Protein 1
Amino acid sequence: MHSILLKQELLSESEMDKETVINVEHVSKKYCKSLKRSMLYGGIDISRNMLKFSSRSDRLRKDEFWALNDISFEVKKGEALGIIGPNGSGKTTLLKLLNGIFWPDKGKITIKGKVGALIELGAGFHPLLTGRENIYINAAILGMKKREIYKEFDSIVEFAGIGDFIDSPIKNYSSGMYVRLGFSIAIHSSPDILLVDEALSVGDAQFVQKCLWKFQQFQEKGGTIVFVSHNMDSIKKNCQETILLDQGEIIDRGKPKEVTDVYNALIFEKIASEMKKEQSPTGKELASRRVGKKNQRYGSFQAEIVDVTILNGEGKPRKTVNTNEATEIKIKALFYEELRDILVGFTIRNRIGVDVYMTNTGWKGVDIPRVSKNNNLEVSFAQKMCLVPGEYTITAAVSQITPNGIRRLDWVSDCLVFEVLASEKMSGICNLDSAVSVKQGKSEVDIDR
Amino acid sequence: MEEIITIYEPDNSLKKGYLAIFREIFIELKQNRWLTYQLFKRDFLSAYKQSFIGILWAMVLPLVSIGIFIVLNRSGVLNIGDIGAPYSIYALLGIAFWQFFSNGLVACSNSLVNAGPMILKINFSKKSLVIAAAAKAIVPFIIQIIIVSVLFVGYGMTPSIAGLLIPVFMIPLILFTIGLGFFASLVNGVIRDFGNIISILLTFMMFFTPVLYGKPRIGILATLTKYNPLYYLVSVPRNLVLKGVILEWEGFLIVCLISVILFLGCLYAFHLTEARVAERI
């Protein structure tokens, strides 16, 4: 007790309300492209370490490159951090560093508390052994003590929902049962910090819901989560902060909604540059574009969206509409040069950034073959707003269909905010406008008998 | 509540003293006893699961090799020398100790490589993996000791009471095996050639070590034997069972010392480099 008091006195006020549990300072990690050279370097590094020499890991040798370069961030207790980025950007490597599987070559990682990793569910299961045998072994590998395993065993089996299969070899399990068991063991190993790497991409919807619910519970109890995912919706839903990695560097960080927009832009630019065989703007440039502007915007800007409005049933521009009201969304674009095969579309997102609806002229079968230079193009979409009450945003885009794919002319994220109102209560995403009828009658089964 | 604070940094251990590192190692080993046992159980259970005669396979190889040597011995091709006990008992005991070493070393050297995917996904004590692999060698050893006991009954002989001290006199052999095993698993983790080299070396070594024949008195082999630590590790426990005496105290004590140093040295090296190996596997 005494020592705890002392410790608290030493902490400054800001640190006291929320404690940093993961602190990553200027961390870099290098890999070697050539396998043979990697063997040689490995031998050298190990020999040096054995003899208590420094492995001088901060220098690059031939064929080596930085897989992660100068990464710094911190995560506070009870927070969820999302890590996103294109393939090969270093997300998994970062997770492995946090887990201590790899050591950083430069910098320092400080972690407070027990770390549990969901890097691959069921890693370490032996196919020939039964579920029961595998639970004991896997739990021990994940760092559970004998006493804990005996205590949690029933709970693990119950959460995994594998029932009678507990005593048959794992190789007979369906892939769903396999990951459920893996997840169940990992979540029961009572970590303070959970590292999750695309672990949920395998299960069915019900299982994913169950997992998300577990994560929420875990966070409410003060647990910290680091999430790696390609699923932007789950990042937006679960994380308070997000880091965008590209080529081993952090290029953006902030609110999940904003960072995922930069990510989308980055992916778009990568695809576009592949089509054009041109140098695309780097992630850093994209991230800097966001700064100073309220909304994320990207494209070639040969045409520009100049106005987006939403009109209510009476044809008047409005920021609030009633649920199920007939509305019109008007997108106006100015063309700086003559362009062919134009697409105009929009996306409605809800408050947490989930895409609720998306459409465009192409999908609707409307062709816009040609727009002349200096012309305005105005496209109206009429629809009923079958949405539950809440705040929504509209993201508008003008693109061009080319033989190589879609070329973005202008894309403006969340350029318009509007609210949907309703007189009755409802929840979810869309308003299906249910009609209710109630019937009563005598049962044909005699209950008293 | 106690907070665990972990720091990952390059050359973490260079800042610590030898004593601090050894303390760290032994705390880790102690904390992971249950894990080590579970890993051993996993290997043990899975090795014989999809097989009809299961664990009896561990008896086949020693019986066949003894059979060959008995045939060679009877035909006078092989001069075994004075061994002072029925040859089959002598040979089987020798093989039991030798194979404890060779099985253990091979299992250790492959332990990190075989667990590669797991090592890359979960952070756990790799030392447990190596020790659990070495422990696998106990199973065939026990079976061979059972066969030896049957042979003793068959020949109407009684082994020396001092034979009960075998577990104590095997400690140097165990330390020697695990020590080399730590080293071999590291090197094999980075350079796969090493596993093959070990298998070949072990085959050669078995013929240069008086396992299946008596101690040579003359020639190069006699000199080799004198400086071969494995000779002492095999023959001292064997003589203890057969004759109840220890003939070469001096050599055995030196080898004991070597084993302890080897074990501690390799454990230390393993501890400093286990994470470096993970990224090369």
Protein 2
Amino acid sequence: MGILLILIVIVVLLVVFVIGIYNALVRLRNQVTNAWSQIDVQLKRRHDLIPNLIETVKGYMQHERGTLEAVTNARSQAMGAKGVAETAKAEGVLGRALSKFLLTVEAYPDLKANQNFLALQEELSSTENKIAFSRQAYNDQVLFYNNKIQMFPSNIIAGMFNFAKSDFFEIEDAAEKAVPKVSFGN
Amino acid sequence: MWEQIRANKRNSILLLMLMAAVLGLLGWFIGSAVSPDPMAGIFGLVVALIVWMILAMVSFSSGDAIFLAASKATPVTKSVHPQLFNVVEEMAIAAQLPMPKIYIINDPAPNAFATGRSPQSASLAVTAGLLGRLSRDELQGVVGHEMSHILHRDILFVTIAGVMLGAITLLSEIFLRSMFYSSMGRRYSSRGSRGGQAQAIMLVIAIIAAILAPIMATLLYFALSRRREYLADAGSARLTRYPEGLASALEKISQNTTPLAVANKVTAPMYIVNPLQKEGMKLSDLTSTHPPISQRVKILRGMAGASFADYSDAFKTATKHTTPIPSSAIKEETIQIRSASQQPPISAKNQHRNIGDIMQRTASFSFVNCSCGLKLKIPPNFKAGEVQCPRCGQMLTI
């Protein structure tokens, strides 16, 4: 009888323990999802800004068709990307295409005096910054979550309930790690 | 940073208690000075404590509104200054805080402050002079500094302290003035000699207390605000990953010679740069609310990376003092300093033009661009739907 009681107590404690870890894992996973949606908002914003930007500069930059097309193509690639790793790669390409494009703008003083363009440029560079900052927050969350999944004893519960590791949002080009250089005419 | 946040919460409570004691004593002395009856002192104490309770409630519920109103800050929408909104949003994301309410103070002197009870109800105010002068990187540095104040919960402490300090100053002034205007000899000369003497002593003590209380309160308030400024500078460097932005913003702000008209002794510690004192004076004395700007700039420029540890190291080399950064914040992290945004410097003429534009936009002027290149600024009380361009004569719709 005594042994049975002890067994029941142990089982109950174990269940409580497992529930605790399970809930902690769910919370962390939700935080990762939430941090990702923050990035996603900014990426969508970037995608929405590009057509307006191209429309505004088209008249000024007839000789830069190649650069503009690179941006448009990178944008459609990025919009079609699925999953964190693929998105990160496509967005990296788009980011580089955009910085290249903004560098060529330097050669067009008329464009740099255009109020509409300046407003778009401000929005675009701010979106780039927001992507960079929210990426940092997301990667921090992923680190917490992945650590929890891999560490004992939570790794057992994570394995039982199929908690998968999350991918970091990384942009491989070292130069891209810094907030992109964007110029502001005044 | 949790250490700092906890310390701020604890200090807020401590300060409330201390101010209660100061206010209570002041009330008791004033009460005893007015009448020889022992109940008068107690009555003064009770009145002072009731005043304190009302103040505590007011500063907790609407301290931020009081400060914003006292600084004549206008709430603005994104259309008034899109860049400011963008920069604040960037810093809110970096600090992982909700977006604060944004205000512009229509004053050509450059300055900024944050206030509020919690990060969820925070407000951020910047002057038109600041917006007109600073480049994007510099503005980001300043907003990062204010966002750090919000993140470290400095805002609640400073708001409560400010309201309390204001009240103590006000009560002492009222008492001292009433002493000055009423004929002081009348009361105690008509009573018996012993009671009159005791009352005279109480009166002297009350006057001394009334003079000292605001000074003591001010000193306490100021001493606690300097460490926060260093911490907020470190926080700004970490959030923006670009210490040079804040450094050059501080330099630009310190070059300004016009004082901020809406600032006073009570609101001064809230601003990023003390709006009342001129740089160049030796401010190592007790009354300075902010560390000297040259020192802050030197520390920021000496940073090798953008983390708290880098700030701490730069602080030690620049000042030879112990670091103001709590040890819990100095953890293993390497944050590289990012490269600057390419931006041509704003000419002095354009700075003034920008300031004028921002001030007019804040005062809800509308702007109409004519195709001839002229920009028309329409005051809010102009009611007609059309206006003629004075240069080319074209009719423009507003």
